[in-house]
Amino acid sequence: MTYHHNATSYTGVRITALAAATALSTLFGTHTATAAQTVVKWMHVETVPAYIKTWEDIAKKYETQHPDVDIQLQFLENEAFKAKLPTLLQSDAAPDFFYSWGGGVLRQQSQTGALMDLTEAMNANGGEWAKTYKPAAVAGLTFDDKIYAVPYRMGTVSFFYNKELFAKAGVKAEDIKTWDDFLGAVKTLKGAGIAPIAGGGGDKWPLHFYWSFLVMRNGGEAVFEAAKNKEGEGFMHPAVIKAGEQLAELGKLQPFQNGYLGANWPQTLGAFGDGRAAMLLGFENTEPNQRKNAGDGKGLAADNIGRFGFPIVEGGAGKATDTLGGLNGWGVSKNASPAAVDFLRFLTSQEMERQMASEGMIIPAAVDAEEGLKNPLMRESADQLAASTWHQNFFDQDLGPSVGRVVNDVSVEILAGQMTAEEGAQAIQDATELE
């Protein structure tokens, strides 16, 4: 899940190399479009200008080697991307390939017939292409034995904290091992006059991480898989209800910054980067993203940011080594050109993924590309993934769009005291049964 502020559409203004060279040159870099015969439309969400420049540079490198191809990049704001993509995929304006969070959303897209089946291409020559990625990455983008996306990145959600604010309040991150320890740290920070957590209730999904992790820590993989597959007690399992009760307990402490219910994700990153909250539950690339969204454009110094995993729940079935995060890839439209597929192979090659890792953009899905990681916090995330006993894709993606929306809504409402744990579990169970 990466996010951008500049919404466009293929039927409207396209952010192309030519546009970048004119009105948007300062943001997107310069890049002169050729009189290409084959246009490849690449649709993405992004926030960091330096990363966007990297995308442009990679496209330019490919175009130099293939002068008959014009790669056209387009960026949509996150929610607009999710809202418009289903319609675009069923139209003549469909992108050749697009960013995917995998899970139930990708599965649903595959069932509509909108996607290209990449199985034959990736398994040709003894699986030469498929073997360039970590097996878990390919498996996570495979449904009914068919590969529907090209692996790109893996990620994990964890807590990031402001070392100076922790020191001011006398909180030690290494002492936060259990959920009770975490609640204790929240109380201590509040007592020191510090907002404990930056929260993004406006976008809703940032707060579903809390509910998801608590379900994982209480119930473990068996409970979640049973619920997802409509087995046993489903989301009415006692472990799931307990997770909701713990979430409500956190909400009663009023742990977030003022106005959190209206804050979108960039604003949430900004609150953390401005030092207005001590913690953020976020992605592996939090350190560069908080810089970009901070009021001064600089944010917290890298050495002032620490990181720790989501705490365990004492007596719960989940392990501290169970991780929650992304498995992202590039979905390919059914009518995409061979040039688009060839460019995707180039984009996700070990060389390109190593470059992106070295720039702190991703934890790569390509085999052995993580050696390029230089950012210590990113390296910690990569090491946590390497030791993961269960890596779960984001709940709102894995459960599909309709159930995912309910999960996000419920998470916010429980935290805000507008819904009980039982009501939330029932709402998710009802949505699952309608699938």
Description:
This protein has 435 residues and is of the alpha/beta class. It has two domains: 17-154 and 327-386, D-Maltodextrin-Binding Protein, domain 2; 158-324 and 399-434, Periplasmic binding protein-like II (D-Maltodextrin-Binding Protein, domain 2). Helix content is 46%, strand content 13%. The protein has 19 helices and 13 strands. The chain has helices spanning 17-21, 25-28, 49-65, 78-89, 103-111, 119-127, 135-140, 163-169, 179-191, 205-228, 238-252, 265-273, 286-293, 338-347, 350-358, 376-386, 395-398, 401-415, 421-434, and strands spanning 38-44, 69-75, 97-100, 142-143, 146-147, 149-154, 158-162, 279-282, 305-308, 322-325, 327-332, 363-364, 390-393. The protein has a six-stranded mixed β-sheet, sandwiched between helices. A three-stranded antiparallel β-sheet has the order 8-7-9. A hairpin with a 2-residue loop joins strand 4 and strand 5 (146-147). Helix 10 (205-228) packs antiparallel against helix 11 (238-252), helix 12 crosses helix 13 and helix 18 packs antiparallel against helix 19 (421-434). The longest helix has 24 residues, at 205-228. The two termini are 24 Å apart.
